[in-house]
């Protein structure tokens, strides 16, 4: 299984487009949104400056990109192309394929988080305690598993042709409505009411709670936990269905 | 072989898709060291049979055993190497990287370089998998199927997309595998391949085993030889039809410049005896030809007979 993880990783690191969108793009977007913001005015109701607030949003966005974009499309295409069948003719355990995909995505998502932090600290003077930096990295990294499971589920749900639009709609929908690109406090009230139930919103809120040095809201934890159970359960069910069919 | 269990044992295996019975009560046994061809037209159930054999599909009824265990157990033990028509490859990695993965996954792996060389892909080892021609991709699949010391090699239409030269080289490699005592099972559309390579041929039709024997036996079963000759003038057909070992006779106007005459085409299971009896009729056959019936024609004849029977 390690050899498959290694090969998946080699391939991911070789894909410049994927690396750009998952590692560089979130930082560029951060600079674009927070670049002209002064470091005194606060985002409504958070007590955080815009750069501090957006740093977590963009780190979450980068991790989301790394775990969602690569996996869903590859799984759908490789299912269709027969690579998944070929792997089933090796002693690799059935779940090894999904596991290797998730593991290699997790390796790519780590730099996409860290790069945003470095850019925010260097360019926009974002300052946090050491424990906050570590906790943020850990929380955003671990939280990305929720969306890795979603990526796997989409990969087993969609066909090779449909997977890209489905992934894109899910990806942009979750990013925008979840407030990863702009604070949800700028949304009209009805949209805010929807946004707070999205896993991406809960995901970023987790990081922002760490920045505010307070315990995360129970609702956010619950949304993430339920989403993870839903996505992982769905992925497992679709995986089994696909295995019986193939 | 470390076990006395048959390499492959199908016992009354059936698999249906809706109303279509893809595999229908299939029972067969493969013994160690055999090279077996699985022949059949599209939709005969070849691919489904191989999927069942490899545990990719589960039978509706009956049992499939490899080396006395389940297909999955045999694969995990590294006893089976397989190359599927539908088996895809991982994109954006090099040929060598992919073969290394297959070697790493196999419990009894060979050296990567040896596997590459044997499959004839050493010179394209650094090429990206998604930049290969159809024939090259087939060779990579073959390398994946032979990455380790497996006892059974299963190949589904292995030479699809290969040109004649590559195909010959491929079968030479395949024979080496068989000569090392492995059991080889392959499905093919190229019936001459089954004829040339397999020491046992299984003919599958509508999910059932239609014939099981050597290529020579399969040909014999359909009326193995074709006899053709011209006769001048008109001839009474009755004595022709009474010739021994006939399976069919057709009489047509001969197109020869010699004038009015007839061309007679006969299929016979014992051409020597038929021709001997022909001269006994006191006729003078001209342009006599005796030719072997290709396996393809034999196959057509067998399946046609089967379809006639089922109507």
Automatic annotation (TrEMBL), chain A:
Keywords: Antibiotic resistance, Membrane, Transmembrane, Transmembrane helix. It comes from Streptomyces canus. It comes from the Bacteria. The chain crosses the membrane at residues 18-37, 49-69, 98-121, 133-157, 169-191, 221-239. GO terms for molecular function: ABC-type transporter activity. GO terms for cellular component: ATP-binding cassette (ABC) transporter complex. It is a multi-pass membrane protein. This is ABC transporter. It is found in: Membrane. The lineage of its organism: Bacteria, Bacillati, Actinomycetota, Actinomycetes, Kitasatosporales.
UniProtKB/TrEMBL annotation, chain B:
Residues 8-231 form the ABC transporter domain. It holds the Pfam family ABC_tran. GO terms for biological process: response to antibiotic. Keywords: Antibiotic resistance, ATP-binding, Nucleotide-binding, Transport. InterPro entries: AAA+_ATPase (IPR003593), ABC_transporter-like_ATP-bd (IPR003439), ABC_transporter-like_CS (IPR017871), ABC_transporter_ATP-binding (IPR050763), P-loop_NTPase (IPR027417). It is a peripheral membrane protein. GO terms for cellular component: plasma membrane. It comes from the Bacteria. PANTHER family: ABC TRANSPORTER ATP-BINDING PROTEIN. This is Sulfate ABC transporter ATP-binding protein. It comes from Streptomyces canus.
């Amino acid at each position: 299984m390690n050899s498959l993880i290694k090969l998946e990783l080699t391939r991911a690191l070789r894909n410049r487009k994927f690396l750009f969108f998952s590692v560089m793009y979130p930082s560029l977007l951060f600079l674009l949104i927070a670049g002209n913001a002064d470091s005194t005015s606060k985002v409504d109701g958070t007590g955080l400056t815009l750069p501090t607030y957006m740093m977590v949003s963009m780190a979450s966005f980068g991790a989301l990109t790394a775990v969602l974009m690569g996996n869903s499309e590859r799984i759908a295409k490789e299912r269709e192309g027969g690579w998944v069948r070929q792997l089933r003719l090796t002693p690799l355990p059935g779940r090894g394929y999904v596991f290797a995909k998730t593991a290699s995505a997790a390796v790519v998502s780590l730099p996409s988080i860290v790069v945003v932090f470095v850019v925010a600290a260097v360019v926009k003077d974002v300052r946090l305690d050491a424990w906050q930096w570590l906790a943020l990295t850990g929380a955003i990294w671990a939280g990305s598993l929720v969306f890795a499971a979603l990526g796997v589920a989409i990969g087993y749900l969609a066909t090779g042709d449909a997977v890209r639009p489905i992934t894109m709609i899910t990806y942009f929908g979750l990013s925008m409505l979840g407030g990863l690109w702009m604070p949800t406090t700028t949304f009209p009230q009805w949209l805010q009411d929807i946004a707070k139930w999205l896993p991406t919103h809960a995901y970023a809120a987790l990081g922002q709670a760490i920045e505010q040095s307070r315990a995360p809201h129970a609702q956010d934890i619950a949304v993430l936990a339920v989403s993870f159970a839903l996505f992982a359960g769905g992925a497992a069910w679709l995986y089994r269905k696909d295995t019986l069919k193939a | 072989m470390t076990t006395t269990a048959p390499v492959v044992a199908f016992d009354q295996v059936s698999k249906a898709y809706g109303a279509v019975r893809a595999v229908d009560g299939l029972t067969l046994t493969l013994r160690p060291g055999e090279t077996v061809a699985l022949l059949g037209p599209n939709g005969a159930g070849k691919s489904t049979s191989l999927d069942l054999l490899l545990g990719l599909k589960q039978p509706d009824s009956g049992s499939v055993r490899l080396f006395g265990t389940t297909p999955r157990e045999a694969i995990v033990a590294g006893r089976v190497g397989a190359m599927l028509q539908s088996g895809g490859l991982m994109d954006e990695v090099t040929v060598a990287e992919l073969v290394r993965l297959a070697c790493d996954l196999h419990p009894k792996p060979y050296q990567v370089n040896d596997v590459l060389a044997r499959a004839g892909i050493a010179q394209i080892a650094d090429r990206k998998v998604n930049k290969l021609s159809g024939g090259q991709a087939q060779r990579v699949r073959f390398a994946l199927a032979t990455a380790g010391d497996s006892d059974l090699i299963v190949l589904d239409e292995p030479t699809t997309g290969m040109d004649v030269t590559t195909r010959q080289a491929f079968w030479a490699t395949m024979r080496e595998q068989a000569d090392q005592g492995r059991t080889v099972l392959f499905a093919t559309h190229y019936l001459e391949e089954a004829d040339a390579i397999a020491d046992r041929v299984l003919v599958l039709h509508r999910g059932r085993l239609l014939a099981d024997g050597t290529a020579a036996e399969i040909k014999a079963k359909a009326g193995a030889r074709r006899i053709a000759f011209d006769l001048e003038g008109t001839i009474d057909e009755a004595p022709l039809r009474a010739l021994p070992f006939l399976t069919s006779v057709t009489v047509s106007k001969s197109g020869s410049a010699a004038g009015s005459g007839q061309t007679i085409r006969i299929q016979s299971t014992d051409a020597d005896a038929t021709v001997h009896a022909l001269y006994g009729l006191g006729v003078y056959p001209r342009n006599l030809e005796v030719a072997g019936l290709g396996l393809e024609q034999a196959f057509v004849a067998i399946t046609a007979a089967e379809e006639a029977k089922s109507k």
